[in-house]
């Protein structure tokens, strides 16, 4: 059973088209993804989800490839098929040092993973937050600070984790189909 309806660009209200246009302008994409079309029936809801994503991913001081890796890892840990595929694609388009097989190995290897050092500490922190945010310790913060992250940047990392979790619940509960340009990793 399909649990959602899509509102394509041509059938969207003017307010929803404004959201779609902002998405495409900001991301450089030439089409509106399924997750956003599934919200297109409600311009306020589409705008709220898009503004949250835009504000979290496209502002702040952390680089976009790191944010995309965080979303990918959180989505993979939550078993969110749509988000893990989408953000695997985004990571690969932003970090040419990685290949699909690297991300797939990360998902399937458990503790035996091989990520570039640039990602390792943030990924470990994100996984701990996903497992139980109440168990994050001062030492976890200090580990990131020792790696050069400020307290503000650690808050930004947590905001990205939270954003991913929100989208994971939304896309998984609806069982969104993958966009044609996404490759399933789960």
Characterize the structure shown:
This is Carboxymuconolactone decarboxylase family protein. InterPro entries: AhpD-like, CMD-like. GO terms for molecular function: peroxiredoxin activity. Pfam families: CMD. Residues 45-90 form the Carboxymuconolactone decarboxylase-like domain. It is a single chain. This protein has 186 residues and is an all-alpha fold. The chain has two domains: 9-57; 64-174, AhpD-like. It has helices spanning 14-27, 34-37, 43-57, 64-78, 81-94, 100-109, 117-132, 138-146, 151-174. It is globular. The two termini are 20 Å apart. The mean pLDDT is 94.
Sum up the overall morphology in one term: globular
- Strand tally is 0
CATH H-level homologous superfamily name of the largest domain = AhpD-like
Instruction: Please compute the radius of gyration using only Cα atoms.
Output: 17 Å
Question: What's the order of the H and E elements?
Answer: HHHHHHHHH
CATH topology of the largest domain: AhpD-like
Count every helix, treating DSSP H or I runs of 4 or more residues as helices: 9
GO molecular function, one term: peroxiredoxin activity
Domain Carboxymuconolactone decarboxylase-like: 45-90
InterPro entries: AhpD-like (IPR029032), CMD-like (IPR003779)
Protein name: Carboxymuconolactone decarboxylase family protein
